[in-house]
Amino acid sequence: MWYKLILLIVSIITYVAQAFGQQDSVRSLSECLELAVANNPTLGRSALQLRENELQYRQSWQSLLPSLNGDISHSINTGRTINPTTNLFVEEIVNAGNLNLISNLNLQNGFRILHDIRRRSSAREAGKLEFDGQINVLKLDVITAYIKVLTGEDLIIQSQQQFEVTKERLRNAEVLFREGAVSPGDYYDIKGEYSLNLNTIEQNRQLANNARAELAGLLNISVEEIGSLHRIDIPAQMQVLDNKRLYELARVHLPQFQAWEWRKKEAESFIKAERSGLYPGLRFGAGFNTFYSSINPQSYPIQARDFLGRFVSVGLSIPIFNQFQVRNRINQAKIDLERVKWEEDIALNELRENTAKAVFDLEVARKNVDNLQQQEQSYAEAFRVAQVQFDLGATNSVIYLTAKNKLENAQNQLVVRRYEWLLQKYVNDFYSGSLDL
After folding, report:
1. Is the separation of the CB atoms in 423 and 144 below 8 Å?
2. pLDDT category, 13, cuts 50, 70, 90?
3. What is the pLDDT of residues 404-417, one digit of tens each?
4. CATH for 27-65+109-279+319-432, options being 1.20.1050.10, 1.20.1600.10, 3.10.20.320, 2.130.10.10
């Protein structure tokens, strides 16, 4: 008795845990977007570029600091050699040491370091905006895959409902066929429709599974971890902007297009940095050095103190002729600037094309939904009439199945077009900068 009671309690706990687990496994679209931004490997790889840009910018301004380097060397000399502490030739084995501490500072190099700082700063800002643009594109990909999953799941439900109608019709036809009340042609037509509906269910299951696999890839998780997806209500009305307005909003709000101004600034700073090679460079140096020799009877620390030397230096480098390398680098930097401008024009041209398509596709999707709703109503009435006439024996299976297939096709297309309408709404929101999920 107690054993059965324990089993009952364990069963109840397990059932409740599974129920809560299934409830928690339902993912909303916003949760999928957050997971994709956190886990997507392609986006993670792109984030490395941000770190690299930050390092390059940090190194550019750190180049303003003076350098400081130490050098220690030790040698064993035999035969005729120079005693480093006396600079006299000796004929014996000499253990010699040399210590140096040198600092250098660029006082002037045509403001190359300054221009390089500006260049790296512009590259850093452009990289941030381009990364934000990649996040937005990833979100749009996730939304597309998410809606594909919902479409496939709704089509599965739709096809299963259609299958139940055919299944019931086949059950009645089998009874009538055994009694000789229905022709063999009509019976086998319905039986073939039964198999067709089964294939349709499997095709829709494959469609949904492929969409779930695509979504799982974007989230960087397994298909099983996706769980159930939260349904999205399709609004009855959606705002439609004209081509020009959507293009202007996209150009202003999408960060990847704001990045082009920084890329041009980067290229302009690079030209100035290369042009600095035409001007003289001034550098300052200072340091300490000392010597040690085994011939000298004094200890190492004493020699390091006694032979300690100090020096300062100022160097001026004047470019006279360098095989036109500086001129060619300047011209190459100008070509890079022109390339950036052309790439911006190409991107804006593609944006103009894509926004025009987005506006048109949203309007077409809305009209398709309206037309399919009316078509579904008409075909539903036609199927009802064909079903009544078929039941009365006033028509054959061809007319009945034709009416049935028209209705089912309209129903399936309505499911697809509704979600296409929703997807186009998200696409337009993406370009207008109002995508808030």
Report:
1. yes
2. very low
3. 999 999 999 999 99
4. 1.20.1600.10
